[in-house]
Amino acid sequence: MEFMDVFEKWAERYDDTVFNTSKENEYKDVFEDYPKMLDQIAQLSTGEVLEIGAGTGNLTQHLIRQGLDVTAIDPSEDMRAIANQKEGIHVIEGHFLKIPVEKKFDTIVSSFAFHHLDHQGKQEALNYMKQFLKPNGHIVFIDTLFESEMNKNQIIQFYTDKMYVNLVEDLQTEYYPFKDELEKIVESANGTSELEQQNRFAWLIHMKFGH
Question: What is the pTM of this model?
Fold first, then answer.
């Protein structure tokens, strides 16, 4: 829950940020092709779906349009309030380490939220979440990560030169993992992962686990 204050600050402007393609938006490159990425998650999702970190409900909308049975959770009261104003959406309180339902799901999904957990938190969350998967269940995330230390330094320098102060601060303080670190975290949770880069920051992460 380290970044709860960030969620509260972002709530009112989150939708504008993720859909804003103007050059003035520091986060434009992070969310490039945002609707397409959410649609990819929805296309890969099957059956009963648990969405963690639903935020303002953008992925939730894509899942519902796909005809899926969605349970959506988020830790931020402000985010939930915005999401729940949207037609057909009901987001309840919960997060990666506190899933407030007693059932199993075919798919667990999340978008741009897993990086808020540190490495230990990611490990704990995967081991915890897989208990909520049906035998052939899977996890599908869109999230931000770096390919390597060199890649991280290059990206930070690029946006420092652009004077994107807020984005650079996020890149330096939030827990964006390296690609191989994330693969090892999934492997140590007895899982396999397929990663596909979507833009300079975002990757589609498809995980399956042995039980």
Answer: 0.93
**What radius of gyration do the chain's Cα atoms show?**
16
- Is the CB of residue 134 less than 8 Å from the CB of residue 105? yes
Residue 92 CA to residue 83 CA, distance in Å, equals 10
Distance CA 144, CA 189 (A): 20
For residue 156, count other CB atoms closer than 10 A to its CB.
16
SS (H, E, C) the chain: CCCHHHHHHHHCCHHHHHHCCCCCCCCCCCCCCHHHHHHHHHHHCCCEEEEECCCCCHHHHHHHHCCCEEEEEECCHHHHHHHCCCCCCCEEECECCECCCCCCEEEEEEECCHHHCCHHHHHHHHHHHHHHEEEEEEEEEEEECECCHHHHHHHHHHHHHCCCHHHHHHHHHCCCCEHHHHHHHHHHCCEEEEEEECCCCEEEEEEEECC
Cross-strand bridge partners of residue 108: 50, 139
Q: Which amino acid is at 6?
A: V
Residue range 89-114, pLDDT digits in tens: 999 999 999 999 999 999 999 999 99
- Contact (Cβ atoms closer than 8 angstroms) between residue 56 and residue 17: no
Taking only the tens place, the pLDDT of each residue in 147-171 is: 999 999 999 999 999 999 999 999 9
120 CB-near residues (< 8 Å, 6+ apart): none
